Request: fold
Amino acid sequence: MRKFSFIKASTLAALVGAISIQAETFKEIPGTYDYFEARKVCETKLGKGWRLPEIWELFTLRGKTDEFGKDKRYWSGNTLEEARIVKTIRHESEYFVNDKNRPAYAFYLQDGDITPTPKSVKAHVICTNQTKVMASDEGFQKQPDGSVIDRRSDIVWEPLGDTKRRNLKLPFEEAEEYCESRGWRLPSVDELYGIVNFNYVKPAVNKKIFGPMHLKYYWSDDDFGDDSAYVVGFSIGSVATSKKSNVSYFRCVKDLEEISE
Reply:
């Protein structure tokens, strides 16, 4: 079991396609804005080249409350259900961005929660001038037995070919024991969120690589306080916390270095 620790720069860089994570590439705009106002304010206030971050770019700022503030909800540029078919990239003018009734993703820095939020809600804005990198499956290699080598995080994902195993839901500690008794472990929230790909929806992961996954929460090994842990939802790619007494799905991992020994 791991206590919650902030994300490592090397893991984050892989998550967003080897993007450079530097504090000066993110700036907060004073005030609060609805989603449509937020989409315009970065360029209006900071100039050409500044924009709302993608949700996975915001995730790299998790825990940086000293720089950006506590108890704040921040808009991302991503809208719920904007996921497209493979190789199709979203454009700013597409209907799901402009649809007032379609929620957008918002992010809480202090606890890492990602939640669909009505676009009329007033939230804070962090802008970035980084080159936009879309989600990809680069670094994942599916193996003949159904396991997946994840070179972004230097881990191997457990094969879930067996239906009974794939449908297994356990409380946190039992899930942790299940993995460890077989020489595996639960993934960190960074590792688990690292396989989310917003080019897919329901599940928000490439099934050709990772196989069938439930549209529900999966346990991570990162604690949130003493009685809760982080979970990642693969219906829409959300991050939340759950009581450890709750039952959730889980998928074990193993460090690549253990495989090569």
